[in-house]
Amino acid sequence: MLQKTNQANLAESDHQDHPESHSVFGFWTYLMTDCVLFAALFATFASLWHQFAGGPTGKDLFELPGVAIETGLLLLSSITFGFAMLNAYQQKSGKVMQWLVVTFLLGALFLFLELREFSQLIAEGASPQRSAFWSSFFALVGTHGLHVFIGLIWMAVMMIHVLLRPQLGEHEIRRLACLGLFWHFLDLVWICVFTFVYLGSVV
Predict the structure, then answer these.
(1) pTM
(2) CATH number, domain with residue 132
(3) Which parts of the chain sit beneath pLDDT 70?
């Protein structure tokens, strides 16, 4: 009886020394606030849909083939990150690094093409100051691009972690899982952007 009591006390003490992490729950909470942010930006864009102020429209300037390439790159990066997570659970740090590098390059290429699109739109007279439509467009798509940039920085930090700690612990895997949630969330937001902003403006 005394032995069982001692074991229970030791288990309780160990639980107090190593409390369960609430980082994943906290990150889900953050994603919910980000959902509210993007919902507000989508609502703003929808309310200013036809406010062109006599300037160019989305139908005039949007190039769907280029945007489709951007979409394909981002969706593919979500798949490659999934491969990185599968290898992380199997403790294959070398494979994790390889897939993270591929994901990073795909995300960086997406961001490069998006910035090039912005510069082309501005050169054609569709700057954020031109009309309410373009102001809301740049606010929405630019905010998504900023999130992708932050995700790339986070990914670079995680690659350094994996490089320095070949044996992935629970802490590193949890961080990768949170980054995966963030990256997949950006994919979902971009699908909405592609559907409602680009396709909705052209069709």
Answers:
(1) 0.86
(2) 1.20.120.80
(3) 1-23
